[in-house]
Here is the input.
Amino acid sequence: MKTFTLGQSREEVENMLPNKQIKTVQLGSKKICIVKSGSDFFAFEPQCPHRMAPLNKGMLNGFNEIICPLHEYRFDLASGQVKSGDCGDLQVYKTELSDKGLTIFI
Here is the structure.
């Protein structure tokens, strides 16, 4: 497992990731999406497992689910489980916010 850290402080991460705005970042050879929802941060694969639609164009609902822009499939961002639709689960990555930044475990 590899770890990557975004930012150098809690405040820098908070300013870098506005609430409910999905960002795509390159971590080593892997591209992922990151989103902040309230005080929670979620990291996940950038494409829907169904038809590979770009999830950075999707929306986050009030249940911390990402909604695919193509067919409106919904995925739980904590577990990756598909909640609506007929495809595999979404790959999600553990995140941890500290005074040293946001650590992402891949």
